[in-house]
Protein backbone atom coordinates (compact mmCIF):
# COMPACT_ATOMS: atom_id res chain seq x y z
CA UNK A 1 0.00 0.00 0.00
CA UNK A 2 1.63 3.17 -1.27
CA UNK A 3 0.66 5.38 1.69
CA UNK A 4 2.27 3.05 4.22
CA UNK A 5 5.44 2.74 2.15
CA UNK A 6 5.66 6.53 2.02
CA UNK A 7 5.54 6.67 5.84
CA UNK A 8 8.23 4.01 6.17
CA UNK A 9 10.54 5.77 3.71
CA UNK A 10 10.12 9.15 5.35
CA UNK A 11 10.91 7.76 8.80
CA UNK A 12 13.99 5.93 7.51
CA UNK A 13 15.33 8.94 5.60
CA UNK A 14 14.50 11.85 7.92
CA UNK A 15 13.53 10.34 11.29
CA UNK A 16 15.16 11.43 14.55
CA UNK A 17 16.41 9.14 17.30
CA UNK A 18 14.75 9.30 20.70
CA UNK A 19 14.60 7.19 23.87
CA UNK A 20 11.01 6.27 24.77
CA UNK A 21 10.66 5.89 28.56
CA UNK A 22 7.49 3.75 28.79
CA UNK A 23 8.81 0.93 26.61
CA UNK A 24 12.44 1.66 27.53
CA UNK A 25 13.34 1.36 23.85
CA UNK A 26 14.83 3.69 21.25
CA UNK A 27 12.75 4.89 18.31
CA UNK A 28 13.35 6.60 14.98
CA UNK A 29 10.47 9.02 14.49
CA UNK A 30 8.82 11.87 12.64
CA UNK A 31 5.91 14.07 13.69
CA UNK A 32 2.54 14.77 12.11
CA UNK A 33 1.63 13.07 8.82
CA UNK A 34 -1.61 12.46 6.91
CA UNK A 35 -2.51 9.39 4.85
CA UNK A 36 -5.68 9.35 2.77
CA UNK A 37 -7.61 6.29 1.54
CA UNK A 38 -10.59 6.15 -0.82
CA UNK A 39 -12.54 3.04 0.17
CA UNK A 40 -14.25 2.99 -3.22
CA UNK A 41 -10.87 2.00 -4.69
CA UNK A 42 -10.53 -1.01 -2.39
CA UNK A 43 -10.11 -1.88 1.28
CA UNK A 44 -6.91 -0.36 2.73
CA UNK A 45 -4.73 -3.16 4.09
CA UNK A 46 -0.99 -3.78 3.80
CA UNK A 47 -0.10 -6.14 0.95
CA UNK A 48 3.71 -6.17 1.25
CA UNK A 49 3.31 -8.47 4.25
CA UNK A 50 0.45 -10.57 5.56
CA UNK A 51 -1.83 -8.79 8.03
CA UNK A 52 -4.28 -11.20 9.69
CA UNK A 53 -7.76 -9.69 9.20
CA UNK A 54 -9.28 -11.79 11.97
CA UNK A 55 -6.97 -10.40 14.63
CA UNK A 56 -7.55 -6.74 13.78
CA UNK A 57 -11.33 -7.19 13.53
CA UNK A 58 -11.52 -9.11 16.82
CA UNK A 59 -9.70 -6.24 18.51
CA UNK A 60 -12.06 -3.70 16.90
CA UNK A 61 -15.13 -5.65 18.05
CA UNK A 62 -13.63 -5.86 21.56
CA UNK A 63 -13.34 -2.08 21.61
CA UNK A 64 -16.85 -1.60 20.23
CA UNK A 65 -18.27 -3.86 22.95
CA UNK A 66 -16.77 -1.57 25.57
CA UNK A 67 -14.61 -4.16 27.31
CA UNK A 68 -11.66 -3.36 29.54
CA UNK A 69 -10.30 -6.84 30.28
CA UNK A 70 -7.98 -8.68 27.92
CA UNK A 71 -9.63 -12.02 28.76
CA UNK A 72 -12.05 -12.32 25.82
CA UNK A 73 -9.26 -11.45 23.37
CA UNK A 74 -6.93 -13.93 25.05
CA UNK A 75 -9.57 -16.66 24.80
CA UNK A 76 -10.03 -15.83 21.10
CA UNK A 77 -6.27 -16.35 20.57
CA UNK A 78 -5.65 -12.63 20.05
CA UNK A 79 -2.63 -11.62 22.10
CA UNK A 80 -2.12 -7.96 21.16
CA UNK A 81 -2.81 -6.70 24.67
CA UNK A 82 -1.39 -9.53 26.81
CA UNK A 83 1.89 -7.80 27.67
CA UNK A 84 0.18 -4.51 28.51
CA UNK A 85 -2.26 -6.25 30.86
CA UNK A 86 0.64 -8.08 32.49
CA UNK A 87 2.63 -4.87 32.95
CA UNK A 88 -0.41 -3.28 34.59
CA UNK A 89 -0.63 -6.29 36.91
CA UNK A 90 3.02 -5.74 37.90
CA UNK A 91 2.43 -2.04 38.55
CA UNK A 92 -0.76 -2.65 40.52
CA UNK A 93 1.10 -5.10 42.76
CA UNK A 94 4.27 -2.98 43.17
CA UNK A 95 6.32 -5.51 41.21
CA UNK A 96 7.42 -3.37 38.25
CA UNK A 97 10.80 -2.43 39.77
CA UNK A 98 11.43 -5.93 41.10
CA UNK A 99 10.64 -7.46 37.71
CA UNK A 100 11.95 -4.94 35.12
CA UNK A 101 11.27 -5.01 31.39
CA UNK A 102 13.68 -6.67 28.95
CA UNK A 103 14.78 -9.29 31.50
CA UNK A 104 14.37 -13.05 31.79
CA UNK A 105 12.55 -12.53 35.09
CA UNK A 106 9.89 -10.48 33.26
CA UNK A 107 9.48 -13.17 30.59
CA UNK A 108 9.21 -15.95 33.18
CA UNK A 109 6.61 -14.13 35.26
CA UNK A 110 4.70 -13.22 32.10
CA UNK A 111 4.36 -16.92 31.24
CA UNK A 112 3.12 -17.69 34.76
CA UNK A 113 0.62 -14.84 34.56
CA UNK A 114 -0.75 -16.14 31.24
CA UNK A 115 -1.27 -19.57 32.80
CA UNK A 116 -3.23 -17.98 35.64
CA UNK A 117 -5.25 -15.93 33.14
CA UNK A 118 -6.12 -19.13 31.26
CA UNK A 119 -7.30 -20.71 34.52
CA UNK A 120 -9.39 -17.66 35.44
CA UNK A 121 -7.13 -16.73 38.36
CA UNK A 122 -6.28 -13.32 36.87
CA UNK A 123 -8.82 -10.79 35.59
CA UNK A 124 -6.63 -9.32 32.83
CA UNK A 125 -7.91 -5.82 33.56
CA UNK A 126 -6.43 -3.00 31.47
CA UNK A 127 -8.26 -0.16 33.16
CA UNK A 128 -10.71 2.19 31.37
CA UNK A 129 -9.13 1.86 27.90
CA UNK A 130 -10.54 2.45 24.40
CA UNK A 131 -13.86 0.65 24.42
CA UNK A 132 -14.70 1.58 27.98
CA UNK A 133 -14.50 5.23 26.96
CA UNK A 134 -16.54 4.63 23.79
CA UNK A 135 -19.35 2.86 25.61
CA UNK A 136 -19.06 3.91 29.28
CA UNK A 137 -17.69 7.49 29.36
CA UNK A 138 -18.62 8.99 32.74
CA UNK A 139 -19.73 12.62 32.89
CA UNK A 140 -19.32 15.01 35.83
CA UNK A 141 -22.62 13.80 37.31
CA UNK A 142 -21.42 10.21 37.38
CA UNK A 143 -23.71 9.23 34.51
CA UNK A 144 -22.50 6.93 31.74
CA UNK A 145 -22.50 8.13 28.14
CA UNK A 146 -22.57 5.58 25.31
CA UNK A 147 -20.64 7.53 22.68
CA UNK A 148 -21.10 4.87 20.01
CA UNK A 149 -24.89 4.69 20.25
CA UNK A 150 -25.23 8.46 20.45
CA UNK A 151 -22.98 8.97 17.44
CA UNK A 152 -24.82 6.43 15.27
CA UNK A 153 -28.18 7.89 16.28
CA UNK A 154 -27.00 11.42 15.51
CA UNK A 155 -25.70 10.42 12.07
CA UNK A 156 -29.16 9.10 11.25
CA UNK A 157 -31.12 12.00 12.72
CA UNK A 158 -28.78 14.97 12.24
CA UNK A 159 -26.38 14.03 9.42
CA UNK A 160 -25.10 17.60 8.98
CA UNK A 161 -23.90 17.82 12.59
CA UNK A 162 -20.20 18.22 13.29
CA UNK A 163 -20.37 16.24 16.54
CA UNK A 164 -20.19 12.70 15.14
CA UNK A 165 -17.24 11.83 17.38
CA UNK A 166 -15.78 8.89 19.28
CA UNK A 167 -13.22 10.13 21.81
CA UNK A 168 -11.10 7.55 23.63
CA UNK A 169 -8.79 10.01 25.40
CA UNK A 170 -10.13 10.77 28.86
CA UNK A 171 -7.45 12.74 30.72
CA UNK A 172 -9.10 12.06 34.07
CA UNK A 173 -8.88 8.28 33.54
CA UNK A 174 -5.48 8.20 31.85
CA UNK A 175 -3.52 7.20 34.98
CA UNK A 176 -5.70 4.11 35.42
CA UNK A 177 -5.14 2.85 31.86
CA UNK A 178 -2.54 0.18 31.10
CA UNK A 179 -1.84 2.17 27.94
CA UNK A 180 -3.34 5.42 26.73
CA UNK A 181 -5.24 5.13 23.43
CA UNK A 182 -3.04 5.31 20.35
CA UNK A 183 -5.78 6.15 17.83
CA UNK A 184 -7.91 8.32 20.10
CA UNK A 185 -10.17 10.51 17.96
CA UNK A 186 -12.64 9.36 15.30
CA UNK A 187 -14.81 11.99 13.65
CA UNK A 188 -17.39 11.11 11.00
CA UNK A 189 -18.67 13.55 8.39
CA UNK A 190 -21.73 13.13 6.15
CA UNK A 191 -22.06 14.76 2.73
CA UNK A 192 -25.14 13.60 0.83
CA UNK A 193 -25.14 9.80 1.03
CA UNK A 194 -21.35 9.61 1.61
CA UNK A 195 -19.69 8.97 4.97
CA UNK A 196 -16.09 10.04 5.65
CA UNK A 197 -13.93 9.32 8.69
CA UNK A 198 -11.01 11.31 10.07
CA UNK A 199 -8.92 9.37 12.58
CA UNK A 200 -6.18 10.91 14.75
CA UNK A 201 -3.48 8.76 16.34
CA UNK A 202 -1.07 10.06 19.00
CA UNK A 203 1.45 7.19 18.99
CA UNK A 204 2.15 5.19 15.85
CA UNK A 205 4.18 1.98 15.78
CA UNK A 206 4.50 2.02 12.01
CA UNK A 207 5.47 -1.64 11.53
CA UNK A 208 2.99 -3.43 13.81
CA UNK A 209 0.42 -0.92 15.02
CA UNK A 210 -0.31 1.34 12.05
CA UNK A 211 -1.18 -1.49 9.60
CA UNK A 212 -3.79 -2.75 12.09
CA UNK A 213 -5.03 0.76 12.85
CA UNK A 214 -5.58 1.73 9.21
CA UNK A 215 -7.61 -1.41 8.49
CA UNK A 216 -9.54 -1.15 11.77
CA UNK A 217 -10.54 2.43 11.03
CA UNK A 218 -11.60 1.40 7.52
CA UNK A 219 -13.68 -1.47 8.95
CA UNK A 220 -15.26 0.89 11.48
CA UNK A 221 -16.12 3.30 8.67
CA UNK A 222 -17.65 0.48 6.65
CA UNK A 223 -19.73 -0.81 9.56
CA UNK A 224 -21.03 2.61 10.61
CA UNK A 225 -21.86 3.41 6.99
CA UNK A 226 -23.81 0.16 6.66
CA UNK A 227 -25.63 0.78 9.95
CA UNK A 228 -26.66 4.29 8.85
CA UNK A 229 -27.42 3.34 5.21
CA UNK A 230 -24.62 5.49 3.78
CA UNK A 231 -21.68 4.76 1.49
CA UNK A 232 -18.21 4.57 3.05
CA UNK A 233 -16.03 7.00 1.11
CA UNK A 234 -12.81 8.49 2.50
CA UNK A 235 -10.59 7.66 5.47
CA UNK A 236 -8.06 10.28 6.53
CA UNK A 237 -5.53 8.98 9.04
CA UNK A 238 -3.40 11.51 10.94
CA UNK A 239 -0.37 10.07 12.70
CA UNK A 240 1.40 12.27 15.24
CA UNK A 241 4.41 10.53 16.85
CA UNK A 242 5.13 8.26 13.88
CA UNK A 243 7.99 5.89 14.59
CA UNK A 244 9.95 2.69 14.11
CA UNK A 245 11.37 0.84 17.11
CA UNK A 246 15.14 0.41 17.24
CA UNK A 247 15.21 -2.14 20.04
CA UNK A 248 17.44 -2.11 23.11
CA UNK A 249 21.22 -2.16 23.73
CA UNK A 250 23.52 -3.45 22.40
CA UNK A 251 21.52 -3.47 19.12
CA UNK A 252 20.29 0.11 19.54
CA UNK A 253 23.80 1.40 20.33
CA UNK A 254 24.28 1.82 16.57
CA UNK A 255 21.78 4.69 16.63
CA UNK A 256 23.48 6.66 19.39
CA UNK A 257 26.31 7.57 17.00
CA UNK A 258 25.19 10.45 14.71
CA UNK A 259 27.61 9.32 12.00
CA UNK A 260 25.90 5.94 11.85
CA UNK A 261 22.51 7.62 11.52
CA UNK A 262 23.80 9.86 8.75
CA UNK A 263 25.27 6.96 6.79
CA UNK A 264 22.15 4.81 7.20
CA UNK A 265 19.81 7.58 6.09
CA UNK A 266 22.08 8.44 3.18
CA UNK A 267 22.03 4.84 1.96
CA UNK A 268 18.22 4.67 2.15
CA UNK A 269 17.90 8.02 0.41
CA UNK A 270 20.02 6.80 -2.51
CA UNK A 271 17.79 3.78 -3.23
CA UNK A 272 16.32 3.87 -6.75
CA UNK A 273 15.08 0.27 -7.07
CA UNK A 274 13.11 -1.85 -4.60
CA UNK A 275 15.74 -4.59 -4.53
CA UNK A 276 18.28 -2.11 -3.16
CA UNK A 277 16.39 -1.95 0.16
CA UNK A 278 17.54 -5.53 0.74
CA UNK A 279 21.13 -4.38 0.20
CA UNK A 280 20.66 -1.66 2.83
CA UNK A 281 19.17 -4.26 5.18
CA UNK A 282 22.15 -6.59 4.72
CA UNK A 283 24.59 -3.71 5.34
CA UNK A 284 22.66 -2.62 8.45
CA UNK A 285 22.67 -6.12 9.93
CA UNK A 286 26.41 -6.39 9.29
CA UNK A 287 27.04 -3.11 11.16
CA UNK A 288 24.85 -3.74 14.23
CA UNK A 289 25.07 -6.13 17.16
CA UNK A 290 23.03 -9.29 16.91
CA UNK A 291 19.79 -9.22 18.88
CA UNK A 292 19.78 -11.72 21.76
CA UNK A 293 17.09 -14.37 22.04
CA UNK A 294 15.31 -12.40 24.74
CA UNK A 295 15.23 -9.19 22.71
CA UNK A 296 14.98 -10.66 19.21
CA UNK A 297 12.61 -8.71 16.98
CA UNK A 298 12.49 -5.53 19.06
CA UNK A 299 14.40 -3.72 16.29
CA UNK A 300 11.87 -3.08 13.50
CA UNK A 301 14.30 -1.61 10.96
CA UNK A 302 14.99 -4.95 9.19
CA UNK A 303 11.27 -5.55 8.68
CA UNK A 304 10.73 -2.03 7.36
CA UNK A 305 13.44 -2.54 4.74
CA UNK A 306 12.09 -5.98 3.83
CA UNK A 307 8.64 -4.51 3.25
CA UNK A 308 9.96 -1.71 1.07
CA UNK A 309 11.69 -4.30 -1.12
CA UNK A 310 8.27 -5.79 -1.99
CA UNK A 311 5.93 -4.45 -4.67
CA UNK A 312 2.45 -3.51 -3.33
CA UNK A 313 -0.39 -5.62 -4.73
CA UNK A 314 -4.02 -4.85 -5.50
CA UNK A 315 -6.39 -4.06 -2.64
CA UNK A 316 -9.17 -6.46 -1.62
CA UNK A 317 -12.89 -5.78 -1.23
CA UNK A 318 -14.60 -5.62 2.18
CA UNK A 319 -17.79 -7.65 2.59
CA UNK A 320 -19.85 -7.31 5.77
CA UNK A 321 -22.53 -9.68 7.05
CA UNK A 322 -26.07 -8.35 7.17
CA UNK A 323 -27.33 -7.34 10.59
CA UNK A 324 -27.26 -4.67 13.27
CA UNK A 325 -23.83 -3.33 14.17
CA UNK A 326 -24.56 -4.08 17.83
CA UNK A 327 -25.38 -7.72 17.05
CA UNK A 328 -22.44 -8.20 14.70
CA UNK A 329 -19.80 -7.10 17.22
CA UNK A 330 -20.91 -9.94 19.51
CA UNK A 331 -20.05 -12.53 16.86
CA UNK A 332 -16.70 -14.02 15.79
CA UNK A 333 -14.86 -11.75 13.37
CA UNK A 334 -14.61 -14.38 10.64
CA UNK A 335 -18.42 -14.74 10.63
CA UNK A 336 -18.90 -11.01 10.03
CA UNK A 337 -16.03 -9.69 7.90
CA UNK A 338 -14.71 -11.11 4.64
CA UNK A 339 -11.91 -9.71 2.50
CA UNK A 340 -12.21 -10.84 -1.11
CA UNK A 341 -9.05 -10.81 -3.18
CA UNK A 342 -6.52 -10.29 -0.39
CA UNK A 343 -3.25 -11.78 -1.68
CA UNK A 344 -0.35 -10.31 0.33
CA UNK A 345 3.33 -11.15 0.14
CA UNK A 346 3.89 -13.85 2.76
CA UNK A 347 7.15 -13.89 4.67
CA UNK A 348 8.08 -14.47 8.29
CA UNK A 349 8.27 -11.23 10.24
CA UNK A 350 10.61 -10.98 13.21
CA UNK A 351 9.09 -7.82 14.72
CA UNK A 352 7.58 -8.02 18.20
CA UNK A 353 5.37 -5.47 19.92
CA UNK A 354 6.85 -3.06 22.47
CA UNK A 355 5.02 -3.31 25.79
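Sequence proposed for the structure above (355 residues):
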Amino acid sequence: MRQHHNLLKEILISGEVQFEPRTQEFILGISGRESRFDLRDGFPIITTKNVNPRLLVEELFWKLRGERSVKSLFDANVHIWDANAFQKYLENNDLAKKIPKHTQAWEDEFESWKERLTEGKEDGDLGPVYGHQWRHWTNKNGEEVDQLKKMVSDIRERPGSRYHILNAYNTGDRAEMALGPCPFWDQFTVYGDQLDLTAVQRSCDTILGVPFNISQEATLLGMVAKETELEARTLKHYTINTHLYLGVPPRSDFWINPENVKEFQGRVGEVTKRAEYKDVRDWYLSETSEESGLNFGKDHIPDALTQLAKRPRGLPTLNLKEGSLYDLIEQPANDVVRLEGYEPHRWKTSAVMAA
